[in-house]
Amino acid sequence: MTTGLHPGGQPQDPRPTGNQALPQQERVGHGIPHADNRTRSAVITARAAASFDPVGRSVATARSFVRDTLQGWGFADIVDDAVVLTSELVTNAVVHAGTSADVLCLRSDEGVRIEVADRYPEREIPLQATAVNMGSPDREGGRGLQLCAALAGRWGVDYSPTHKQVWFHLDLPDRPVGTRTAGPALPADLLPLADGRVRVAVIQIDRVGAISAWNEDAEDLFGYAAEQVIGKPLTDLAAWPHTPGTSTGIVEALQLSRWEGTYGLRGASGRVTPVYASHLRVRDTGGEPSTVCLLVRDHERAVLQTPLRASATDTTTSSEGQATDPFEVFIGSPAPDDLDGLLQRTVERARDMLDGDSAFLLLATDDETELEVRASTGLPSARQRFARVPVEAGPGRYGSARMPAVHEDLTVVPGAVPLLAGTGMRSVVTVPLKVEGRLTGSLGVAAEGPARYSNEEALRLQFAADRIALAVESARLGELERLRRGSLSFLVEASDLLAGTLDRDQTLALMAQMTVPTLATWCAVYTIADQASDPYLSYVLHEDEERIDGLKALLSKIAPPDPVPTPGARVWAAPGEAAHQAALRTSMRSLGLGAPASVTSGIGTTLATAAAVGGETVVLPLVARNRVIGMLTLGKPSDEHFRQEILELAEDLSRRAALALDNARLYSERTAISQSLQRSLLPPDLPHIDGVEVEVIYRAAGEGNEVGGDFYDLFPIRDGVYGFAIGDVCGTGPEAAAVTGLARHALRLLAREGFGGPAVLERLNSAILDEGARSRFLTLLYGELWPQEDGSAMLKVVCAGHPLPLRLRQDGTVEAAAEPQPLLGVMEDLELYEQTITLDPGDVLLCVTDGVTERREGTRMLGDDGLTDVLTTCTGLTAGAVAARIMRAVERFASDAPSDDMAILAMRVPGLQRD
């Protein structure tokens, strides 16, 4: 929860997060006088108020409210005293009195006044309370007033018929002119270490969050020239939530009147730079608000950081008779569900408490065999985050993290704390975090100098660790529960998406898009066609689209991972090593060794790609039906590590993705086979017939079907004679297509053997009946075509149970061109005959299947009459135009997709061409 005045006196909209007690806050602008009998002469310039419910967690929320309010006002010097006093007074109200508490913070030119009121006025308050005489120390409520007397410049108690109010006033300490706070002189070896010139980036952000100023140090730190970033939102550069350490989002932080903290900015090379920032809200003479940000590298935070005022050894006693120390007050600030914020603020407080150069906190995995780095300060946090070390090889005494330990000089025992290898830290103190005797984590503080810590510091750190262990474990369990619920939701959604497609390429794309950026920064999918084939790089995806090509080029130059069927993720070092070597070669060329412009122009791209692949890379096998069909490769940038929970989720996803990918492969294979077989049932290209126009339109019902129960054919029998057929097998789909193939090939064979139309159909009827249970009814129109020299055409047709062919004359009349006869596949003995038709120039013969005439829309059917009506409008059209108009009319007759196969065969005699 944040508080403070918005520049210009406008109130901010407080939005508590998580499970915090919900304070009802009030904010009033500058210049409002507060009339009371103690500060009449002081002018109140700002105020902030909140109400807290009578529950235990309200105490921590009240502490956070006061801390954030005073820090927002720039009164960090008195924050600790104010928080301790508020904690005691709110505890008295919500815990002991059992009523809600109202907290009011007032800012004036003299200091800060804080009032805590409850709704229990009959409660007895000692009237002669002083710092030395408060009655028995066991008296309930006496401790809070003792603290007021000891820490506050003025304090008192007010009564009303409905409220009791305890107030205290804290004066601002005197500050030397020109300094923010006064600090003692330090020996040179204790001064903060800066490697080279300290760069302070000065960035100004306007009221909408866009960058309006960017100095030279910002260019040096992040690699962007001013013209590249001016006008862009700062959030485009911020690496939230990749850099851990704050519970406040950057948007919320920029809205505070005053803020200090750590976050990460992504530079031009793609690498995240941890920075320590100090933000101050200002307004110009026109009242326009903006934010000035000062940023330094995180390990140089001493340049900007406000020093702690309270000594780490200062402890007081609460009204409950327990010790209250600044460490407890500090860790009570984050929201209960903000584990990262809690851990990061914990390590920062631990480092400051022991005056260290760095600190780190590790949490135990579920099986308590490994420790996972979850927060650090003063160390390369991006590189260390989620790194894992075995518990028994941890930094504790006797080689186990279960015991506290002090290492005076790590150069003597360089492997004692693997986490600190190569960081320059020499002395370290570590203590375990335990809950009910069970190891839950480890907390450590390190310094660059040797022999900085002793058993006394270990006891102080262990005391602090014991105080926070339960809060950390509670937040960790809450995070695990949210992760499990999120994992289930993620896997359900992934299963639905993968099950929704049988296309191989789309399945590969879905696999990658579900992992990036949810599980990893980049992803590559390798596929294996068969056991004799090598893995093939099939798909690459990066969260930054501009790096996909570079990543693909890098991966294509290294050997793919071995297709090991062992389940689980395994580390693959080849991409990181290749990226490192590429970066080294590029750096050598960039030193000015005569490299051409074409080489130097790609240096930035190469370095960015190397940074993008510089983290941990893991490979998960894609196993389906006891066969490795590929590998799923996940990567992190900048030496980041994967969390164990993420790897387990990725393993579950890989199993589902492997089955979906194999199903897509099988479907593609079977579709290809089916399509190949179906195409073999279709006739080849239609022959060209001199003096006759021919057009065919064919539509098979059902998705993926190219051939159904309807069929057509047009083929040469001998010189000047052509056979044609259009038929309909009972049913649709593959079974009907099988009879289609039999009929079409039998017609061609029998016709070319010289049989006439009736003989051809009689023999085909016998062949269909010989199929036994697989036989099906068949309606067939078969004919032979003789183009004539006078421009006409003679046809001999047999219509065996098929819709009658229609003849369109030049005058627009339509008539049936044949008589109906028995269909095939029913009776053994058929007596069929052929009829002769002469098509004059300009005449059209239209042959269709019943899928055309039986087209339905509700109770309406197109029928023979509807088809005749459409055909009468086709006078003078070519055969192709006639067929197209008929098909258009059929499609428009009903809105639903056709449920039956359709075939249309149109033949037209155009007549002789005259000069």
How is this structure best described in words?
The protein has about 900 residues and is an alpha+beta fold. The chain folds into five domains: about 45-120 and about 145-170, Histidine kinase-like ATPase, C-terminal domain (Heat Shock Protein 90), CATH 3.30.565.10; about 200-305, PAS domain (Beta-Lactamase); about 330-390 and about 400-480, GAF domain (Beta-Lactamase, 2-Layer Sandwich); about 500-590 and about 605-670, 2-Layer Sandwich (Beta-Lactamase); about 680-910, Phosphatase 2c, domain 1, CATH 3.60.40.10. Helices cover about 30% and strands about 25% of the residues. The chain has 21 helices and 36 strands. The strands form eight sheets. The chain has a six-stranded antiparallel sheet, covered by helices on one side. β26 (about 710-720) and β27 form a beta hairpin. α11 packs antiparallel against α16 (about 645-680), α13 (about 575-590) packs antiparallel against α15 (about 605-610) and α17 (about 735-750) crosses α18. The protein starts with about 25 loop residues before the first strand and ends in a 7-residue tail after the last strand.
